[in-house]
Amino acid sequence: MLETERLVLRRWCDADRDSFARLNADPEVMHYFPKTHDRKYSDTFIDKMQEHLETHGYTLLACERKEEGDFIGFVGLLQQTFEARFTPAVEVGWRLHKHTWGQGYATEAAKACLRWGFEEHLLDEIVSMTYIGNQPSIRVMQKIGMKYKMHFEHSKLPGHWLEKHILYTAHRVDWRAE
Prior knowledge:
Blueprint: E1 2-3, E2 7-10, H1 17-25, H2 39-56, E3 60-65, E4 71-80, E5 89-96, H3 105-120, E6 125-131, H4 135-143, E7 147-153, E8 164-171, H5 172-177
Helix pairs in contact: 1-2
């Protein structure tokens, strides 16, 4: 569905399921999430992303490297409706296998997703959020041109050490000016 210099962002397929389950079961990858997930959760997640695509026209897409053709995780857009001052909102998000970290893949793919959201879906605003201590994801948000908006307490994580979150935003009018 989307291509960058090194990546293909596409619909999920059954061949992604094993690798995605391993991604979600990796404690290092899931460090800034409340817990790791099993195969059943991972399969359900893929099914929900397919439904999200049908409903909204965008979703978190499977991400593969062009040259190797290997599934490395997901990057895409997701409608967020949990209770917060800024929801409902469309979020750009990513989760990649750790062997691909530090190579610029999240930044490259997230930029393509911003373009997709602003140009094809005519979204006015796209957000991104993470735990306040997740510096790698915060750096990606900054690299793709998003701006700090606020700190907030995530309503799905009350009392959890991950409750304190940071929100970044990008707006179509500003993005077009870049």
